[in-house]
Design a protein that fits this description.
The complex is a heterotrimer of chains A (about 250), B (about 280) and C (about 325). Chain A has helices spanning about 50-55, 80-85, 100-110, 125-140, 155-165, 185-195, 210-215, 235-240, 240-250; strands at about 10-20, 20-35, 35-40, 65-70, 70, 85-90, 170-175, 200-205, 220-225, 225-230. By secondary structure, chain A is α/β, with parallel strands linked by helices. Chain A is globular, with a radius of gyration of 19 Å. Chain B has about 280 residues and is mostly helical. Chain B has a domain at about 20-215. Chain B is globular. Chain B starts with a helix and ends in an 8-residue tail after the last helix. Classes of the chains: A alpha/beta (about 250), B mainly alpha (about 280), C mainly alpha (about 325).
Chain lengths: ~250, ~280, ~325
């Protein structure tokens, strides 16, 4: 049910993606409003991560259009898309593993600059330093700023992953299974910390943990075999028989 | 003219068959262990050098054809167990390490074999008439032997248990481990096999080119090019590409200066790398 | 507070001390060792230019010899055949290889992993094949011998036939290059390089045009490799196509790995150590590369972070 109007941030119009003979995404259309938290759910292989890849530019759609703030971003490279205001996290943690927490966030915080002076001292860039320190506080990792991130606990790494994504000041945040690999307890902690970090960004969330989905989302889109099965509020989806069938496989 | 062309074509095929063996060894090592073996040319050189020693001692080329590759196989075994095993999972480290091994092998040969190139007398000195020239039978024999080795390799890969294990590990390493295949042993024997193939090439090449401690250096890059253009993991691709490239280079050299032919074939390689990095025959 | 001040002073003090020592060297050693030290400095420069792309950006190129050899010819040919001055030659030894690096890099940075290694070798091989056969221009493997006219700096004229003067010139240029690279790797640009090395895809997703930065690093490295080659041919009064061969790149690789990749100081230390080792060993055995290869292998197996990396507590 595509929404119209100036408050729509992201639109997918009949987006398709095929890999060889496999249709991973099959004529998916959806719209996300500004400030909304949209969850993408569905069984494994439904195309959720592929959709995130398409939006963030890692893959290019074989057909259809992706519009962000009214502009066509379908064919843009990932770095251009980042500069438009879209950020993404990964299901399998993707950090600058040999660098410290501070350096990881700095790398993202400085990315909005236009020119990287090869002879400048980075300490002189007060604005980037402030943003880095702010994000360190926000993520709660300030005490571990000097730690190489391969030595962080898994939960901290997931937080850092989000911290990096947020340091580019995105308007749209794509979260790919942020609670992947965490126990229920740890997931709850993560969600709490996440909530503290978010400032009303628009979010598209791919998640398997239904508790997290129900607690956080405004709207759900259910995917099945690369197609949109149904969309609705959490309550509507919970009551939907078709969804139950798809998930329980009856 | 026709005779020149015929000779060039035959030489191209013969040399292509020799290069195919080297490329097959390199391809196996890369396909299975994901090791970029920069010492591969040195192993080829070692095969030629070992064969020279065997011939010096016994005068028998056919004996060298058996003993030399086995000897180099032992060297390969030592290298894999002693050095490469610990770093096999780090591609950048292995490239540089095998470069170091190349240096060591080259210099060992320089020290004990000497810096001057040596020729091996043709064990079969007959020639057959080809248009108005005489073509050495030995070269045809060499191509035939190479084909025989390739055939044996095919049989090994497709008809023996070890060959099956090797193919399984290439397909899916974790599954192979789960099935109880001794993966580390497979790695080891694959490297040995690759070394043996390189050495075979060396022994076959020895009567044609000069045996010299540097002979592996130019061959190495050609081998890499063949493997990449043919498609890494695609053994037939390597054979076809090896013959193709040797033919193009050989026939091309009739019309242009060899170095120009070299530059053009190198340029062609760059094009393939950029346009179709999985190789002409790769997926 | 005092500690921070001391920390800030640590590098200038160490650097100043080292420069003082190196400047004093010609008063204490004979001409042979001055020449030798000049050579070490030249290869150190080649090594740190390789460290930039390998240690800091993560690109393994075995083709840097192309730019080193080109740098040598960029000095030799204009001086010998066009009557240009040494100063112009040196400038060309940066500009010409950098231009070639832009061309080679434009195509090469599209590839990664082994494909990148191979394509850099192929470009170098094309260069050395052309260099060895175009003998009218390059003198082939025999090379070109030339006289280096005095370097006119305005305030003074440096006689480059004098070994000591050449030593000081090379020392000054290499020191400046090191300071330039050191500043660069600590700068915001340097942080982009390192991010690319650590996780290329992540770097792309936070907004860096990775290809462009790889190309930039490649061009800078090419220019500095060329400068090293130019200084080398100036000190030898000789340029040869053999320096274009891809295996010459191996020197930079060995010095960098043994000294410690990604440290800048490491490769320079590696160059000094290995070249000194070769110098002392050559009396014992002709095949010094044997020891070099063995040292390389041992380093990779036991301490892949290199000497300086080890001292810094890294684990690579």
């Amino acid at each position: 049910m595509p929404a119209s109007g100036a408050d729509v941030l992201l639109t997918l119009e009949k987006v398709c993606k095929s890999f060889g003979g496999l249709m991973a995404v099959n004529y998916v259309s959806l719209s996300v409003r500004k400030g909304e938290l949209r969850a993408l759910i569905g069984p494994n292989g439904a195309g959720k991560t592929t959709l995130l890849n398409l939006i963030s530019g890692i893959h290019t759609a074989t057909a259809g259009r992706i519009l962000f703030k009214g502009e066509d971003i379908t064919l843009l490279s990932p770095d251009r898309i980042s500069h438009r205001g879209i950020s993404r996290t990964f299901q399998i943690t993707s950090l600058f593993s040999g660098l410290t927490v501070y350096e990881n966030i700095w790398a993202a915080a400085q990315s909005r600059k236009r020119f990287f002076n090869p002879l400048a001292r980075p300490e002189r860039w007060a604005d980037v330093r402030e943003k880095t320190e702010e994000m360190l506080e926000l993520t709660g990792l300030a005490g571990k700023a000097g730690t190489v991130c391969s030595e962080l606990s898994y939960g901290d790494q997931r937080i850092l992953e989000m911290g990096i994504a947020l340091s580019t000041d995105p308007e749209l945040l794509l979260l790919d299974e942020p609670t992947a690999g965490l126990s229920t307890q740890e997931s709850m902690t993560l969600v709490r910390r996440m909530r503290a970090m978010l400032r009303g960004q628009t979010i598209v969330l791919v998640e398997h943990d239904m508790g997290v989905v129900m607690e956080l989302s405004d709207m759900l889109t259910v995917l099945h075999y690369g197609e949109v099965l149904v969309e609705g509020t959490p309550a509507e989806i919970m009551a939907n028989d078709e969804v139950r069938r798809v998930y329980l496989g009856t | 003219m026709a005779s020149n062309l015929a000779v060039a074509v035959l030489n191209g095929i013969v040399w292509g068959m020799i290069m195919a063996l080297i490329a097959l060894g390199l391809n196996l090592i890369f396909g299975l262990l994901h090791i970029i073996n920069m010492a591969h040319g040195a192993l080829y050189m070692l095969g030629a050098v070992f064969s020279w020693y065997v011939i010096e001692l016994t005068g028998n080329y056919w004996l060298a054809l058996i003993v030399a590759p086995l000897g180099v196989g032992l060297v390969g075994l030592a290298l894999e167990r002693g050095i490469l095993r610990t770093i096999e999972d780090q591609p950048v480290v292995t490239i540089i390490c095998t470069f170091g091994i190349m240096l060591v092998l080259q210099q060992l040969v320089l020290t004990y074999f000497g810096g001057t190139a040596c020729r091996i007398a043709l064990p079969i000195p007959w020639r057959i008439p080809l248009f108005d020239l005489q073509y050495p039978v030995m070269r045809i024999v060499i191509a035939a032997i190479s084909a025989a080795v390739m055939g044996t390799l095919w049989l090994f890969l497709n008809r023996t248990r070890y060959g099956l294990w090797m193919r399984a590990v290439v397909q899916d390493r974790e599954m192979a481990v789960a099935l109880g295949i001794p993966v580390h042993k497979v790695y080891m024997w694959t490297f040995v096999l690759g070394s043996v193939l390189a050495a075979f090439s060396g022994v076959l090449a020895a009567p044609i080119v000069c045996v010299d401690f540097m002979m592996g250096r130019e061959i190495l890059i050609m081998a890499f090019i063949i493997v990449i253009v043919g498609g890494m993991g695609n053994l037939w691709g390597s054979v076809v590409t090896a013959v193709m490239i040797s033919l193009i280079h050989g026939v091309g050299s009739i019309f242009v200066v060899p170095s120009t032919a070299t530059v053009f074939s190198l340029g062609f390689m760059i094009l393939v790398l950029l346009v179709r990095p999985q190789g002409l025959f790769g997926e | 507070m005092l500690l921070d001040k001391w920390k800030g002073a640590a590098f200038p003090l160490a650097f100043g001390f080292l420069m003082a020592v190196l400047a004093a060297v010609p008063f204490f050693v004979d001409l042979f060792y001055q020449t030798f030290l000049t050579e070490i400095l030249v290869w150190s420069l080649f090594a740190i230019s390789f460290d930039l792309i390998f240690g800091y950006v993560g690109l393994l190129s075995f083709g840097q010899a192309l730019f080193f050899g080109l740098g040598g010819y960029a000095v030799a040919i204009p001086v010998l055949k066009l009557g240009l001055g040494t100063g112009s030659g040196l400038l060309l030894s940066v500009a010409v290889p950098a231009a070639f690096a832009a061309f080679v890099g434009f195509f090469s940075v599209r590839l990664t992993g082994i494909h990148f290694v191979i394509i850099t070798i192929i470009f170098a091989l094309i260069g050395s094949t052309v260099g060895e056969t175009w003998t009218s221009l390059t003198g082939g493997a025999d090379g070109l011998v030339f006289m280096a006219p005095p370097l006119d700096l305005g305030v003074a004229k440096l006689d480059l036939m004098d070994i000591r003067t050449t030593y000081y010139l090379v020392l000054a240029i290499v020191a400046l290059s090191y300071l330039f690279l050191r500043r660069m790797v600590r700068s915001p640009l340097g942080k982009v390089f390192v991010a690319i090395r650590e996780n290329e895809e992540r770097a792309r997703l936070i907004g860096y045009d990775v290809r462009r930065y790889k190309l930039l690093a490649f061009v800078i490295a090419g220019g500095l490799s060329g400068l090293a080659g130019g200084l080398y041919s100036l000190s030898l009064k000789y340029a040869s196509a053999t320096f274009l061969h891809w295996s010459v790149s191996g020197h930079a690789v060995v010095y960098t790995i043994v000294g410690g990749a990604g440290t800048l100081v490491g490769p320079m230390l590696g160059a000094g150590l290995i070249m000194s080792l070769e110098h002392y060993l050559v009396k014992l055995l002709q095949a010094t590369d044997l020891v070099v290869g063995a040292v390389l292998i041992s380093t990779l197996l036991l301490a892949p972070m290199g000497i300086v990396g080890f001292l810094l507590g890294r684990r690579k």
